[in-house]
Amino acid sequence: MSQIVKVAWASLCKKGEELCGDWVKVARTPTSLSVVLSDGLGSGVKANILSTLTVEIASTMFEGGASVDEVIETLAATLPECQQRHLAYATFAVLQVQNGRDASLVEYDSEPLIWIHKGELMALPGQERQVAGRTIRESRFQLDEGDYMVMVSDGYVHAGVGGLYRFGWGWNNIAQAVRRWADTRGDAHQLVGSLRRTCLKLYDGAPGDDATAVAMRVRQPRSLTVLTGPPSQPERDGEVVDRFMAAQGARAICGGTTAQMAARVLGRTLKVQWMPGAAGGRPSRLPPVASLEGID
Asked: What's the mean pLDDT when you consider all of the chain?
């Protein structure tokens, strides 16, 4: 079975804003993964709209088989540069992975992807070129099990400016933090949570810019089969339980009636662990947990 890339992301809104000016879209097929991160110019509603448009246009076109040049030309025509500041209305990075291994990356005015390969921070083997007057970076590389990748918007790079870090957290410091964290072999959700907490702390709880991190980890897939609800025809109970017990990977049962059915068919004892009451003597709102031999 091919290795897979697990993805988790989290955003912090600029202080005083209800909408984040960064946007992320993750799309999967059985054999491919696409991750798009865009940072809209400024903050608030305008930046949110610009980054959302950029993400939707880029992801839809790439999924439809458009070339990099076609995507860039469309974005350049749709979202021109700010005439006053000569800045892109929205930056973006698009990562595509086939079979959990073959990665291609397109970056436009975005912070470089952080790639930890075999425990080391790697330089991406990319090149720059001009498309529709925009300078883009393209990279192609091979992923191995245990690799980590992180995308960040510039709100992370500038975190702590004028405080703990004179010029902000900085890409190199973030990359080294990810490299050290990779030694824990934790999952993508734990990594993005760690980055988010550090970023918020550097901003002293009041982010000066929208800040987004997308964390990815390459690992082998894991299988889980969940059985919930007995069949409408009681005579099929045995068939359903047999199929369930033959499933590969972890097995879980959801629902007391289903658990009782499985215990009866298997001829095993269902042991219920009644939940203690909540604080103040109120009944627990959680259903009881039960154990059954052979069920995870």
From this structure: 90
